């Protein structure tokens, strides 16, 4: 099993979508690369993200990135749908430098690479979200109106 962290705006939607992708074993909503080690307090520079445990024999980093691109506007800076602000920026984070190299190469090979606004950075800090935010849209589908991803797309791989 390997792990990678994907940020695509609202973490509720990213988690609800990605957890059904074949090869994804486990997901956890959280915060990447902030300065604190808890969820209380003022904004500390984090990006809302989802920690993804995956089987590299079933799915590659490149395929995970392609799936992320299904649910985001890769050209948007600090905004996905109605969610605006630095914490909603898009990104790919990992403690594994091979993941980051693969991501940079994969994105760089796209025809639109010069327009893409995804961070690709080492993961320095991860703080899991509070329990109320874990698998939120599975437990509270009535809150889908807060998510920029269409319901049919959220469950494309379910």
Automatic annotation (TrEMBL):
Ranges for domain Peptide methionine sulphoxide reductase MsrA: 3-145
GO MF entries: L-methionine:thioredoxin-disulfide S-oxidoreductase activity; peptide-methionine (S)-S-oxide reductase activity
Record field: catalytic activity: [thioredoxin]-disulfide + L-methionine + H2O = L-methionine (S)-S-oxide + [thioredoxin]-dithiol; L-methionyl-[protein] + [thioredoxin]-disulfide + H2O = L-methionyl-(S)-S-oxide-[protein] + [thioredoxin]-dithiol
PANTHER family: MITOCHONDRIAL PEPTIDE METHIONINE SULFOXIDE REDUCTASE
Keyword terms of this UniProt record: Oxidoreductase
HAMAP family associated with the record: MsrA
Pfam families given in the database record: PMSR
Name of the protein: Peptide methionine sulfoxide reductase MsrA
NCBIfam families: PRK05528.1 (NF004038)
Function summary: Has an important function as a repair enzyme for proteins that have been inactivated by oxidation. Catalyzes the reversible oxidation-reduction of methionine sulfoxide in proteins to methionine.
GO cellular component: a single term: cytoplasm
Biological classification of the source: Bacteria, Pseudomonadati, Pseudomonadota, Gammaproteobacteria, Vibrionales
Enzyme Commission number(s): 1.8.4.11
The keyword Lipid biosynthesis appears for this protein: no
Keyword Translocase attributed: no
Cross-referenced InterPro entries: Met_Sox_Rdtase_MsrA_dom (IPR002569), Met_Sox_Rdtase_MsrA_sf (IPR036509), MsrA_MetSO_reductase (IPR050162)
BP terms from Gene Ontology: cellular response to oxidative stress
Active site residues of this protein: 10
The family this protein is said to belong to: Belongs to the MsrA Met sulfoxide reductase family.
SUPFAM superfamilies tied to this protein: Peptide methionine sulfoxide reductase
């Amino acid at each position: 099993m390997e792990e990678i962290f994907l940020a695509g705006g609202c973490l509720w939607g990213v988690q609800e979508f990605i957890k059904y992708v074949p090869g994804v074993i486990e997901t956890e909503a959280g915060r990447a690369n902030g300065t604190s080690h808890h969820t209380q307090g003022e904004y500390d520079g984090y990006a809302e993200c989802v920690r993804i445990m995956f089987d590299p024999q079933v799915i590659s980093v490149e395929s995970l990135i392609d799936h992320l691109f299904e649910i985001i506007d890769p050209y948007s800076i600090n905004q996905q749908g109605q969610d605006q602000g630095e914490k909603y920026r898009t990104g790919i984070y990992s403690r594994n430098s091979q993941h980051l190299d693969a991501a940079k190469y994969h994105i760089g090979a796209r025809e639109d690479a010069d327009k893409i606004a995804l961070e690709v950075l080492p993961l320095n800090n991860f703080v899991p979200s509070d329990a109320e935010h874990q698998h939120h849209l599975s437990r509270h589908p009535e809150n889908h109106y807060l998510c920029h991803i269409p319901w049919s797309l959220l469950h494309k791989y379910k």
